[in-house]
């Protein structure tokens, strides 16, 4: 084989290698790719507790089988801390302003917890 006859197949191989990540990147950002990633699971809330620890509330299932799981995530594993029925979705603005402990207690129907340092006197 001469240098000119190998240049065509080599260029086609390099082009394919470059197109694969580009196609995956485009697929991730199109409605087709986004619809595929919307499976039977969604993150409802997350609370970092430390550098490698967090609490997650995850919604799993669909329809009547839908459940919320409160998960403890550490480097050693993932533990289910609580399972509950789906709660009414709060508007995004109130969810962002609501501390996770209050959100969780409200979702469970428990008494509200006053924020630290709030003694009621102003």
Automatic annotation (TrEMBL):
Location, primary (coarse class): membrane
Pfam families: FliO (PF04347)
Annotated compartments: Cell membrane; Bacterial flagellum basal body
Keyword annotations from UniProtKB, A to Z: Bacterial flagellum, Cell membrane, Cell projection, Cilium, Flagellum, Membrane, Transmembrane, Transmembrane helix
Residues annotated as transmembrane: 6-27
InterPro entries xrefs: Flagellar_biosynth_FliO, FliO/MopB
PANTHER family, A to Z: FLAGELLAR PROTEIN FLIO
Protein family (similarity comment): Belongs to the FliO/MopB family.
Protein name: Flagellar protein
Organism: Pseudaquabacterium terrae
């Amino acid at each position: 084989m001469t240098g000119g006859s190998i240049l065509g197949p080599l260029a086609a191989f390099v082009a394919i290698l470059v197109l694969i990540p580009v196609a995956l990147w485009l697929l991730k950002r199109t409605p087709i790719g986004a619809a595929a990633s919307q499976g039977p699971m969604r993150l409802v809330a997350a609370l970092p507790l430390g550098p490698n620890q967090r609490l997650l509330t995850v919604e799993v299932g669909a329809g009547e089988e839908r459940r919320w799981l409160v998960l403890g995530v550490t480097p050693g594993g993932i533990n289910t801390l609580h399972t509950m029925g789906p709660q009414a979705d709060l508007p995004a603005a109130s969810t962002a302003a609501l501390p996770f402990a209050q959100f969780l207690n409200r979702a469970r129907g428990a008494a509200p917890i006053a924020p630290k340092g709030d003694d009621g006197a102003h």
